Structures are given as C-alpha cells and as structure tokens.
Amino acid sequence: MKTTLLSKPLTSIYVEQIAPQFGMPDLTLPFWGSRKKMPMHRIVRLEGEGNYTLFHFADGSQLMVSLTLKKMESRLSPKVFVRPHKKNIINLLYLEAFHPDHQQLSVSLVNGDLIEVSRRKASRFIKQVKGFQQELLILDARPTTPALVGV
C-alpha cells in the first residue's frame, strides 16, 4: 500500500528556490586527492558503504567519497536530511511516498529509490517528516518575492 506524503513531488525549480530557506550551503567533499564543491540541495540521498559514502544526486549522477556516513551526517542540514536507517540518509525535498507494510515501513524517493525505515527510528522519522511538511506549508503561505518570480 502506497501513501502519498505531498500532493505532488516538488519540482526542481521549487527545490532550487526554497533550498536557501533550509540552510543548505554547498558541501566541500574530498574527491581523488582534491576537493569538490557540491550543492547540498541537489543530494537525493547518501548511502553508507563501510568507510565510504555514496552520494546520489538529483540529476542521476553519483559520487563516492572517503568519509563515513556518520561524519557526513554532521555536515548536513538537519531540517532536510534525515537518517531513516543506519545505511541511508535521505533529503526530504525528494521524498515521494510512505509504504507501510505490516511491520516494515519504507519510503520512496522521486528518483525511484525505495528506502527502508528501521523500526527503532520509525516514530522519530515520521515526526521529522511532519515537521518538514509544516515548514513547507509555512513557506508556501509566504508571499512570493520578486527575485523568485519567473525562475
């Protein structure tokens, strides 16, 4: 059974517009002996693989960095990024639906990924999603600033 969270998934234009409201600066990541700046709001999810983290971006690209998921979690905006399972951190801007199934809850993201929510983290995760939805409602209620019109 699929339960939709939002009336419709957020568009990429809308995500670009509201990202500054959630305190989402660029991340500087170690990459092949150098550093690379990546826009935080374009990260769909992060997947832990031992001492490495695999970034999944909105454009479908991926990037592996030599930092643990725990270390990355401390660098992300807590209003938008949540950890539903020990192996994943997801960006709520790209959350599409809940999938409750007997004892196991999972969520789908707009890129088609299906992520399990651990039983121990389920209630906290749901509270975080509801808080995020409230933030979106507040943002939607604000009048549109001229700088955002037509973008």
UniProtKB/TrEMBL annotation:
Domain annotation HTH LytTR-type: ranges: 33-131
A Pfam short name: LytTR
Molecular function in Gene Ontology: DNA binding; phosphorelay response regulator activity
InterPro entries reported in the protein's UniProt record: LytR-like, LytTR_DNA-bd_dom
Family matches, as Gene3D superfamilies: LytTr DNA-binding domain
UniProt name for this protein: LytTR family transcriptional regulator
Lineage: Bacteria, Pseudomonadati, Bacteroidota, Cytophagia, Cytophagales
